[in-house]
Amino acid sequence: MKDDVSWVPEDEWASVVANVPIVSVDLIVRQEGGVLLGLRENEPAKGEWFVPGGTVLKNERLTEAIHRVAEMELGCEVKICERLGTFEHFYDTSEVEGVETKHYLANAFVVEPLQPVDAVDDQHSELRVFEPPFEGLHPYVQRYIDRIIWE
After folding, report:
1. Do residues 78 and 27 make contact, with C-beta atoms less than 8 angstroms apart?
2. Which residues pair with 57 in a beta bridge?
3. Domains, the chain
């Protein structure tokens, strides 16, 4: 998410992460009968398969954030299918040196790509579609999966 907030000086971003929850969007990307996840390369949740997501910028609507994050992290446009709600995520790690925890208010949306996904950003080393049964996923990802209305 650091790229999303590059307009915030690093020392100020550290203060934000240390003191307030981060408002974000998480994209549950339905694809090929499953859900597209990325293997995270940074904290929090480093080494976990997780949904694409990003910080909501000041004066940015949630739908605008969804489309920006999809373009940045997936290299494609998406159709918004369903809003799953807002979820609290508490982590015991952070990407900010000297800040040991991170708190998100994640707004989760089910989306479908309008073109093939053709990007892997610097936050993920690879992307993969996970199909049912969904087992062994990060608990926050599993909560999303459990809320999806499967057709």
Report:
1. yes
2. none
3. 2-147 (3.90.79.10)
